[in-house]
Amino acid sequence: MWKTILRRLLIMIPEIIILSVLVFILAKAMPGDPFTGSINPKADASQIHHLMRVNGLYDPWYQQYWNWIVHLFHGDLGTSYEYQEPVTTLIAQRGMNTFWLALFTMILTYVIGLPLGIYAGSHEGKLPDTLVRVYTYITMSIPFFVVLVVGVWIFGYTLNWFPTSGSIASNANGLGSTILSRLQHIILPGLLGALFGTVNIVQYLRSEVIDAKSSDYVKTARSKGVSTKNIYQHHIFRNSLLPIAAFAGYSITGLLGGSIFTEMVFSYPGMGLLFLNAINYRDYTVITSLVLLYGFLNLLGTLLSDIILSIVDPRIRVE
Question: I want to staple 301 with a disulfide (CB 3.0 to 4.6 A). Which of 25, 113, 245, 249 is the partner?
Fold first, then answer.
């Protein structure tokens, strides 16, 4: 398996190179520039042209790309035009915020989704199954951003149970206070994100459990006198988890990429909000770095899904 994983990682290199070229060209093709409106509104055009020339934005795109690649291999992703900070520092700071929110959301998603899917599938046609299906239908029919806005309004402003912006309180001092403050800031967005993330898990798992109950290997186990508990535990559940495992890698890397809707509504300083602001302010260095990172995470998600799938089902080998 390790040789296969290494080969897959090597294949990612040309894919990342092609992605970086496309992203760099498209970012430079965006209308506008990072300086108009970000300095003194009364500044004349000559000052803006001077900043464009000093920062090399008038150079041919291939020369700008080459300079960017050279700095990239030295661990320098450039400086943000908007924040006037190194891009590596910005991504590190925002990435940690996104990581904690993604981790909390992912844990809640599987803690809620797995039991619901299994319970609905094992009680097909009964009241619990009907209630779970109603929940999934309602969740799918409501736009995600609407739920986020309503959640902020009810639990943030009306009930004042959770903070509605930021990732940590400014007056948090000490490790315990910092952890508690961070948890308070991620509970509401994480819970709302998990409720929507469970829909696909519940539907897939319910369908797999229903199909597995009528499969030949389950019928054989029943004919041999195997108890219902053991059939569900050792046959139905494990085989039903295969589709969920196949998407686990994408779920992990997708959450790490940051949810733009969630971070925008909650003003949560993560990578999703950073990416949105970078587009608004034509912050080319941040845009190219984040899209390249998202592309790498997507490729990594494919590999993680295959690895997780091979762990869940040893008959499957990563190739």
Answer: 249
Q: How far apart are CA 71 and CA 143, in angstroms?
A: 41
3-state helix, strand, coil in the chain (%, to 5): 75, 0, 25
Q: Is 225 helix (H, G, I), strand (E, B) or coil?
A: coil
Report the CATH number of the 95-256 domain. Answer: 1.10.3720.10
Picking from 262, 270, 272, the residue whose alpha carbon sits closest to that of residue 196 is 262
Nearest to 257 by CA among 300, 203, 212: 300
pLDDT tens, 149-169?
888 888 888 888 888 887 777
- E-strand ranges in 141-211 read none
In this prediction, the residues of the chain whose per-residue pLDDT falls under 50 are 318
State the CB neighbour count (10 A cutoff) for residue 317: 11
**Contact partners, residue 254, CB within 8 Å, separation at least 6:** 297, 301
50-82 CB burial, b ≥16 within 10 A, e <16: ebbeebebeeeeeebbeebeeeeeeeebbbbbb
